Amino acid sequence: MKAIWNGVVIAESDDTVVVEGNHYFPMSSIACEYFNDSAKTTVCPWKGTASYYTLEVNGQQNVDAAWYYPTPKDAAKEITDRIAFWRGVQVV
Fold this sequence. Notes:
CATH topology: Metal Binding Protein, Guanine Nucleotide Exchange Factor, Chain A
CATH superfamily: Domain of unknown function (DUF427)
Strand order of the largest sheet: 3-4-8-7-6-5
Strand content: over 45%
Distance between the termini: 6 Å
Shape: globular
CATH class: Mainly Beta
CATH architecture: Beta Complex
Number of helices: 0
Number of domains: 1
Oligomer: single chain
């Protein structure tokens, strides 16, 4: 699987976990140079508190386009150390 935004592969892995239709990539599969920390967090009742990254590729930003659960709840342990995408990021 590949995650692509603004014409650049930002993550690639043969080992994704699908939860609620989203592919969670291993953190080790991302191209770190395109990811900037975000202050945004959200809470999922069964997965826990999500943190976000803003993508910056070729001078353009995609705010809060990637999320991960630093300490997922027990029901979501399979997404520990994994990241997912939205907001126009293609996962193919």
